[in-house]
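=== RUN LOG ===
request id: a7f3
mode: sequence -> structure
chains: 1
length: 103
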Amino acid sequence: MKKSKIIVEALNSLAEKDFSDLVLKTSLRELAVIFLFLENDEAAIIKNRLPDEKRALLAEEIVFHRKLHVSYAQFSLIADRFLERIGGNKNFKCQSWLKPVKK
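=== RESULT ===
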């Protein structure tokens, strides 16, 4: 399963409970990086559930991080930390770009 699909499922499950929970469990910076790698329609549905003031701040962060050209590796690390913090499935870590260290 693609990491973006896992993130969408996690965000949707948080949204079903109380979306203010999401804002407490992650920073806008992390959310901005995560939203950069989501499909537009998925991101729009989730963003529309945010309170207006948070949505405006998130939009500013997304524009800022888009200019920084965030890599997939950076997204992967942030997404993994996010999933761990919200209690997501740790088996879905997608860090294939890291080579195992041989001793």
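=== NOTES ===
Residues 91-103 have pLDDT under 50 and may be disordered.
The helical segments are 3-17, 19-25, 28-36, 40-47, 52-67, 72-85.
=== END ===
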